[in-house]
Amino acid sequence: MRILHTSDWHLGRAFHRVNMLDAQTEFIGHLVTTVREHAVDAVVVAGDVYDRAVPPLAAVELFDDALHRLAALGVPTVMISGNHDSARRLGVGAGLIDRAGIHLRTEPAACGTPVMLADAFGDVAFYGLPYLEPALVKDEFAVDRAGHETVLAAAMDRVRADLAARAPGTRSVVLAHAFVTGGEPSDSERDITVGGVAAVPAGVFDGADYVALGHLHGCQTLTPRVRYSGSPLAYSFSETDHRKSMWLVDLAADGTVTAERLDCPVPRPLARIRGTLDDLLADPALTPHQDAWVEATLTDPVRPADPMARLGDRFPHTLSLVFAPDRASDDPDVTYARRLAGRTDRQIAEDFVAHVRGAGPDAHELAVLGEAFDAVRADAVVREVAR
């Protein structure tokens, strides 16, 4: 069976101040063409179809167009909701849409109920594991501790139990939206940390022939059977070096997996440039970036006058301007920024306790801080879902 694996469309999202709807429309057209030209048997979309719980109308219309075009090809499509989606909204009408060959899997309770497809060699069970927010699904999975690994392991137990009851030789594909250990994140993914831990081991998915992951925006191979497709478009300058693509996966009769990367259209290349303003405006080595979307980091010790307009004369698609002046290592601003760099909100809070009291939080206080941050996150998720 030939499967096209994609994820993280984020329909409705902008890139800085650039509306990405045209680029997203071009990607959907490319997706449909790829399905047709490569004789794809099934499409899987591993979450974050939309960028937010209540997407703009133009994004909904584009999604509707994508569903109609995929259904018209007669190629089954399996989709799950991601942490950016409203599972309830995305899943509206799922029962009816099923009849058109578009299978929306947004309910945690249905993790162990597959979409059954078949090829010349027999059945393939597609299990959709939508994004599982631990605080909201721990009761459904009857787990004592609300953590990503715990709830995903419980969901996979249901998958393995269902698969074991099926005919010998039934192959399996699992769709999941999660941060799996070994994956490389970028700046454009929303934090899903719970209890200070976001990543789950790839071994959670043992028993599946292929695991189609979503959430991380870089295309990655964690094992030959566990892969991220990444987002089809760049949504942050941290993705400057990404090659945006989809996985074309061939699932053999014995469950063996082979995969090929298929490139996605690039609306405009990205570039990160760094230096003093005068150097950036004069350096001939930067000429190839004049048509790119640019993030410029200025290292001038004193902020220059009108830098965005001056950069725009040479780099008309400059979207982001960062000031990082070259200063002595003992400068207070430098040391403060260095202390905060790469630290989570919880770690910063722990540092603050140590700063004002002279000693860091003890084990009990660490637990209280962790519970407080998890409660804030869970409350934010509940409010987002309720919108």
From TrEMBL:
<dbReference type="GO" id="GO:0006310">
    <property type="term" value="P:DNA recombination"/>
</dbReference>
<feature type="domain" description="Calcineurin-like phosphoesterase">
    <location>
        <begin position="1"/>
        <end position="218"/>
    </location>
</feature>
<dbReference type="Pfam" id="PF12320">
    <property type="entry name" value="SbcD_C"/>
</dbReference>
<comment type="subunit">
    <text>Heterodimer of SbcC and SbcD.</text>
</comment>
<dbReference type="InterPro" id="IPR026843">
    <property type="entry name" value="SbcD_C"/>
</dbReference>
<keyword id="KW-0233">DNA recombination</keyword>
<keyword id="KW-0540">Nuclease</keyword>
<protein>
    <recommendedName>
        <fullName>Nuclease SbcCD subunit D</fullName>
    </recommendedName>
</protein>
<dbReference type="GO" id="GO:0006260">
    <property type="term" value="P:DNA replication"/>
</dbReference>
<keyword id="KW-0269">Exonuclease</keyword>
<comment type="similarity">
    <text>Belongs to the SbcD family.</text>
</comment>
<dbReference type="GO" id="GO:0008408">
    <property type="term" value="F:3'-5' exonuclease activity"/>
</dbReference>
<keyword id="KW-0235">DNA replication</keyword>
<dbReference type="InterPro" id="IPR050535">
    <property type="entry name" value="DNA_Repair-Maintenance_Comp"/>
</dbReference>
<dbReference type="InterPro" id="IPR029052">
    <property type="entry name" value="Metallo-depent_PP-like"/>
</dbReference>
<dbReference type="Pfam" id="PF00149">
    <property type="entry name" value="Metallophos"/>
</dbReference>
<feature type="domain" description="Nuclease SbcCD subunit D C-terminal">
    <location>
        <begin position="267"/>
        <end position="355"/>
    </location>
</feature>
<keyword id="KW-0255">Endonuclease</keyword>
<dbReference type="InterPro" id="IPR004593">
    <property type="entry name" value="SbcD"/>
</dbReference>
<comment type="function">
    <text>SbcCD cleaves DNA hairpin structures. These structures can inhibit DNA replication and are intermediates in certain DNA recombination reactions. The complex acts as a 3'-&gt;5' double strand exonuclease that can open hairpins. It also has a 5' single-strand endonuclease activity.</text>
</comment>
<keyword id="KW-0378">Hydrolase</keyword>
<dbReference type="InterPro" id="IPR004843">
    <property type="entry name" value="Calcineurin-like_PHP"/>
</dbReference>
<dbReference type="InterPro" id="IPR041796">
    <property type="entry name" value="Mre11_N"/>
</dbReference>
<dbReference type="GO" id="GO:0004519">
    <property type="term" value="F:endonuclease activity"/>
</dbReference>
